[in-house]
């Protein structure tokens, strides 16, 4: 038996007559939940009909507008306040749009639900009134900026446009202009609804507006903090833990353990210092006493700079031209896979492995000394250059070349993950596209052209995962989303390795083709070979392979790193120190090591592909 209309009517009357106390309102909900929503006789839950749920929702919504304290009830008693029910959602959207159009205050409890994780996706896609978004930015003291990914491109563009034209001062530290912009924002969005608002509450709204507008503006425009907005960053309300994975404690531990180089550490620590200059003492305390004196001396001097922009210039001068490659910075070095070791006579045994590098020749980049091929590297940093790059893609479609090579870089900061770098090589052209400096829509158009080349193949290290992540970032661009879905002409180097390691004929071929590196790469993480050092990894060409060893070979491809795959197939050491999880790809300008790492990795992808294809063709 379901809840009756009379019971719902009495419940709504009790809500409307409730004293101005959340405790009293909660008692009413609890009583209705315990008595009316439960069938004592049959010991079963009773259900609300669709129309009953809508009436309760409307009643609670309206009384919340009168009594702000009642915002606390939203998010509780979901079986009664069925705000996430598909039959109630249209009513919810209508309420939001009507209040926004009439310049009435939308209950913040409802806005937190709409923009939060509970019902965000299904509702935000249907909202078209920008004032709903602006009300959320004004009222919320803990805004969830991931709603950006759930709104359609035209709305994003409209919000960005209105911030730039009318409310830009709210993204700066100019107090006087911020107050003027907030006054205009309050009149535009709320009309006279805040006329009798408590002054303390208005001050909170002002601070929320400044903080949220600044963060959202950075998100919408992909503005680089260090290059153009460093002196305007609002730091008073930013906690260190809002930086997501970029936590300074983690970066320092990685550095002290020898897993991160100094240049990367300083990029991370500067970002933390930028948001909260008071954290410097905590940063210094994490370093052991009497260790890393050069780092501690550098950090102690940061407070002596007049502003963060001057400090950033200082750090650029010091770390911009970092050395690359460094063989000992590679993850292979930390696994002791190829470094010099003492032999039985106490003498150092040298390896004949070289670092993978580009050799410059008047703006032309040779692949290797043994190769005649040259590649021209073009950095794309403006919309005009991106149009030229797009023209090259269109021209490439008409050439006889069948393969293009792709790599992308993402940044993780402020709780967001953003596309930063696209590296694409076809023929003798390598384009390195710096996404942060370009129009987001133009970038999506460029990617759409790449992934719609039906007669061409895109090759990458883990290109399928790359496509999936790009699809998540650009899922609100329908044209691009469909192209990602249809893109099947992708070749993943890890997949090729998997096919080769599961083919018995190719397993023996690999031993002969990569005699110096196969044993080193595939035994590096194997306890079996550490325990049984006397046994050879793989027997002769005519001898059977041990089943236990076969299992290790087949399983290794699952977690093989790019550096290991490069070492295996080319006998060259790739310095992957810039591929660290805390790599700072949003940096402007990129360090020398970052630029060289991009070019070198693309070279590695080309050479690995050639090597693995030659192996397949040898069978």
Task: Write a structural description.
With 619 residues, the chain is an alpha/beta fold. The protein has 4 domains: 5-221; 240-319, no CATH class; 355-489, Ribonuclease H-like superfamily/Ribonuclease H (Nucleotidyltransferase, domain 5); 494-617, no CATH class. The protein is built from 27 helices and 14 strands. The strands form 4 sheets. It has an 8-stranded mixed β-sheet with strand order 6-7-8-11-10-9-12-13, sandwiched between helices. Strands 1-2 form a two-stranded antiparallel ribbon. Strands 3-4 form a two-stranded antiparallel ribbon. A hairpin with a 2-residue loop joins strand 10 (416-426) and strand 11 (429-434). Helix 1 packs antiparallel against helix 2. The termini are far apart. The model is unreliable at 222-246, 362-372 and 525-545 (pLDDT under 50).
Q: Helical element count?
A: 27
| Widest sheet: strand ordering | 6-7-8-11-10-9-12-13
The domain count comes to 4
End-to-end distance, in Å? 72 Å
Structural class call reads: alpha/beta
Organism: Rhabditophanes sp. KR3021
Protein name: 3'-5' exonuclease domain-containing protein
């Amino acid at each position: 038996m379901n809840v009756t209309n009379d019971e719902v009517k009495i419940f709504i009357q009790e809500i409307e007559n409730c004293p101005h106390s959340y405790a009293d309102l909660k008692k009413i909900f609890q009583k209705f939940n315990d008595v009316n929503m439960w069938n004592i006789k049959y010991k079963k839950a009773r259900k609300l009909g669709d129309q009953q749920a809508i009436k309760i929702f409307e009643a609670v919504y309206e009384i919340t507008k009168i009594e702000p304290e009642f915002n606390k009830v939203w998010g509780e008693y979901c079986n009664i306040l069925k705000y996430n029910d598909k039959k109630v959602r249209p009513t919810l959207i209508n309420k939001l749009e009507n209040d926004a159009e009439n310049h009435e205050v939308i209950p913040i409890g409802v806005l937190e639900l709409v923009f939060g994780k509970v019902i965000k996706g299904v509702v935000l896609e249907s909202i078209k009134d920008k004032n709903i978004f602006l009300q959320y930015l004004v009222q919320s003291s803990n805004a969830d900026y991931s709603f950006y990914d759930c709104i359609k491109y035209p709305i994003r563009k409209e919000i960005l446009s209105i911030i730039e034209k009318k409310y830009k001062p709210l993204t700066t530290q100019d107090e006087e202009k911020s107050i003027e912009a907030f006054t205009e924002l309050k009149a535009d969005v709320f009309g006279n609804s805040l006329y009798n608002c408590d002054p303390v509450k208005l001050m909170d709204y002002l601070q929320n507006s400044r903080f949220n507008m600044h963060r959202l503006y950075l998100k919408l425009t992909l503005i680089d903090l260090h290059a153009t907005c460093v002196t305007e960053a609002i730091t008073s309300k930013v906690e260190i833990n809002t930086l997501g994975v970029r936590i300074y404690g983690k970066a320092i531990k990685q550095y002290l353990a020898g897993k991160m180089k100094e240049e990367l550490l300083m990029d991370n620590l500067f970002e933390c210092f930028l948001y909260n200059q008071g954290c410097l003492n905590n940063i210094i305390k994490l370093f052991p006493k009497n260790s890393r004196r050069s780092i501690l001396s550098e950090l102690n001097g940061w407070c002596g700079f007049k502003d963060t922009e001057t400090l950033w210039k200082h750090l650029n001068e010091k770390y911009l031209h970092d050395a690359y490659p460094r063989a000992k910075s590679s993850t292979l070095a930390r696994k002791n896979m190829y470094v010099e070791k003492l032999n039985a006579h106490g003498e150092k045994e040298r390896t004949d492995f070289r670092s993978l590098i580009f050799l410059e020749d008047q703006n032309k980049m040779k692949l290797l000394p043994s190769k005649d091929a040259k590649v021209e590297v073009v950095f794309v940093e403006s919309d005009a250059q991106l149009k030229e790059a797009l023209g090259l893609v269109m021209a490439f479609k008409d050439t006889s070349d069948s393969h293009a090579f792709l790599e992308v870089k993402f940044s993780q900061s402020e709780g967001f993950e953003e596309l930063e770098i696209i590296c694409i090589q076809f023929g003798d052209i390598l384009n390195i596209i710096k996404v942060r400096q370009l129009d987001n829509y133009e970038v999506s158009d460029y990617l759409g052209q790449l992934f719609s080349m039906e007669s061409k193949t895109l090759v990458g290290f883990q290109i399928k995962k790359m496509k999936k992540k790009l699809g998540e970032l650009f899922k609100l661009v329908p044209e691009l989303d469909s192209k990602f879905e249809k893109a099947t002409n992708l070749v993943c180097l890890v997949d090729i390795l998997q096919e080769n390691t599961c083919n018995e004929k190719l397993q023996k071929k690999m031993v002969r083709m990569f005699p110096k590196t196969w044993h080193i790469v595939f035994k590096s993480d194997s306890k079996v070979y550490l325990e049984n050092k006397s046994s050879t990894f793989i027997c002769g060409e005519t001898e059977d392979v041990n089943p236990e060893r076969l299992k290790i070979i087949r399983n290794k491809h699952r977690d093989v790193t790019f550096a290991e795959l490069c070492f295996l197939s080319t006998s060259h050491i790739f310095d992957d120190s810039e591929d660290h999880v805390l790599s700072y790809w949003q940096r402007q300008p990129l360090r020398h090591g970052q630029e060289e790492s991009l070019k070198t990795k693309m070279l590695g992808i080309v050479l690995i592909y050639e090597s693995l294809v030659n192996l397949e063709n040898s069978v």
